[in-house]
Amino acid sequence: MAMLRRLALAFFLSCFSCSVPSLASSDDFLQCLAKKIPSELVYKQSSSDFTDVLVSSIRFPNFFTNTTVRPLCIVTPTDAGHVQAAVLCGRRNGVRLRVRSGGHDYEGLSYRSVRPEVFGVVDLAKLRSISVNESESTAWVNSGATIGELYYAIGKNNSELAFPAGECPTLGVGGHFSGGGVGMLMRKYGLSSDNVVDAKLVNAKGELLDRAGMGEDHFWAIRGGGGQSFGIVLSWKIQLLHVPPTVAVFSISKTLDQGAVDIVTRWQVVGPSLPDDLTMRVKVQGQEAMFLAVYLGTCSSLVATMGREFPELNMTSADCRSMTYLESTALSFTTLANIGTPEEVLLNRTSGLDISVEGKSDYVRRPISRAAWNDIFSWFKKNGSGLIMLEPHGGFIGSVPNATTPYPHRDGVLYVIQYLVFWPGANGAAPQTWLHDFYDFMGQHVTADPREAYVNFRDLDIGQNAVVDDVSTFESGQVWGERYFMGNFRRLAEVKAQVDPTDYFRNEQTTPPLLHRRN
Ligand SMILES: Cc1cc2nc3c(=O)[nH]c(=O)nc-3n(C[C@H](O)[C@H](O)[C@H](O)COP(=O)(O)OP(=O)(O)OC[C@H]3O[C@@H](n4cnc5c(N)ncnc54)[C@H](O)[C@@H]3O)c2cc1C
Ligand SMILES: *[C@@H]1O[C@H](CO)[C@@H](O)[C@H](O)[C@H]1NC(C)=O
Ligand SMILES: *[C@@H]1O[C@H](CO)[C@@H](O)[C@H](O)[C@H]1NC(C)=O
Ligand SMILES: *[C@@H]1O[C@H](CO)[C@@H](O)[C@H](O)[C@H]1NC(C)=O
Ligand SMILES: *[C@@H]1O[C@H](CO)[C@@H](O)[C@H](O)[C@H]1NC(C)=O
Ligand SMILES: *[C@@H]1O[C@H](CO)[C@@H](O)[C@H](O)[C@H]1NC(C)=O
Ligand SMILES: *[C@@H]1O[C@H](CO)[C@@H](O)[C@H](O)[C@H]1NC(C)=O
Ligand SMILES: *[C@@H]1O[C@H](CO)[C@@H](O)[C@H](O)[C@H]1NC(C)=O
């Protein structure tokens, strides 16, 4: 009892006396911003536009409720100097900053705090230019761009160039590249973060650095080590990659009666060993499995490949559509029903605020048995509000050594599972309970020690940092960090200690500095 009380007191003190600066320093912070950044770029809570700017890229209504701790202000920089000024003002006055690019964090950590804390948000939405260098096959893209805008800029410049990244066009480049970037080109070319060749960031001292300035350890960490931990990345130089003038796509659904269990069971070994040019993901929802594929080639060659590699699916030329790679990105790979969607949908940054989501992830290295797939399908009888998406690894992504970039889920991984439940509005107790129970059930079928997880499918249930002496502890970070980064977590924590030893850039799940404390 006394122990509990002491812990509660310690928690109270660490929350309120250390990390929350006095009101005076909040005022000083705002005055400091006012001196260095044009007033129309700074939205205080008292500004009439504050709420509009705050929700502008909030994706999920459950993070826009009374339980959420909101920022003191939102800064919307239009050049690097504004970002540097915000960091210097924050450091001087003990006010932390959270950075937001596309706002798609699954826990909303780019704009809300779970714990009581005074913080500002640097929202990069106004820094979103993209410049393609066709002769070099590279581009510089600012963090505030969406991946839809990036796909559009590249594909319109040259329909045979592309960049590997995720499916949802409103994802922000800043958060997405910071955590990896899993998508339909990764079996051929790897993650987004595997194809970054330079970057510009503002570090915890407010300095603007490129790759040469930050050094190779710091540059390693920002390519997949998770957003927020290592500074504010303003822009990324990326290597563009070749795609053919047209690609072939299909989506085929199989119900239980049509053999879904057998076909998914077989897919687990086929999907990760197909030629690199062919990526076939699976969505399981209700009593149905949907197989969605993109092939860097023609329909006739795809039909032949499928007949040879995966006859169980009975794919025919009638299932196949040929289009430019850019057109295929506009489909978002959820259904072919929206075929012919104009490419301009990629430029729509609005995503609506009506559906809440909770997500989780797992990795599979040993195929799940047919009997277990029967059980998994029976979970989807219990409720229709959930789905899982299976994304095959293997190919190039599996061949990259597991310490080359922070993403460690490489050799031997068959696929990643993304779990999602949706519900209208903000209150979703029932679907969330279903998800948690289902995730517990799945534990026996997926990787263990650690149970691997993907940082971009952020999940606070797997752990949150404890803060001691105003610094997140390495031990508390290991609990969730080794699940996201495995053997790379320690190196990330060493880099953090070099570049941000006082843990200025932090949230509930940022890499803590590995400090060698004197006792
Ligand atoms: C609908 C949906 C679909 C998705 N599909 C995919 C997918 O296909 N593949 C995949 O890999 N992932 C996918 N994700 C996950 C997605 O990659 C992550 O949520 C990603 O972090 C979003 O980036 P953001 O910039 O939009 O998010 P934000 O919420 O802005 O940021 C996410 C995190 O990164 C930090 N951060 C943001 N910008 C910067 C910056 N410039 N510098 C440093 N840190 C920064 C934030 O502080 C926060 O901690 C999906 C998510 C959603 C909601
Ligand atoms: C906050 O709570 C009050 C009552 O408790 C409720 O009326 C209001 O709608 C809530 N606001 C949001 C944004 O959820
Ligand atoms: C593209 O890169 C090349 C080689 O670095 C450079 O000479 C050229 O000026 C760049 N072009 C553009 C449009 O930036
Ligand atoms: C593609 O980008 C280059 C600059 O690298 C530019 O010169 C060229 O005009 C662009 N082409 C198209 C079709 O936009
Ligand atoms: C695939 O086709 C074969 C023969 O055409 C048929 O016997 C089989 O049932 C089909 N399988 C599925 C899953 O539709
Ligand atoms: C952009 O997407 C939103 C949400 O899906 C939709 O409501 C809106 O109509 C779209 N805007 C345009 C211009 O297409
Ligand atoms: C299933 O979903 C419905 C709403 O779609 C909800 O009312 C019900 O409680 C859910 N059941 C379970 C077991 O989660
Ligand atoms: C890479 O894989 C090897 C062999 O499985 C393992 O021993 C090592 O710890 C892994 N490294 C990382 C960074 O996860």
TrEMBL record:
Keyword field contains Flavoprotein: yes
Tell me which cofactor or cofactors this protein depends on.
Answer: FAD
What organism is this sequence from?
Lolium multiflorum
User: Could you say which residues form the signal peptide?
Assistant: 1-24
Keyword annotations from UniProtKB, A to Z: FAD, Flavoprotein, Glycoprotein, Signal
Q: Which family does it belong to?
A: Belongs to the oxygen-dependent FAD-linked oxidoreductase family.
Name a GO molecular-function annotation: oxidoreductase activity
The FAD-binding PCMH-type domain extends over 67-243
What this protein is called in its record is: FAD-binding PCMH-type domain-containing protein
A Pfam family that the UniProt record links to this protein: BBE
Instruction: Report the coiled-coil segments.
Output: none
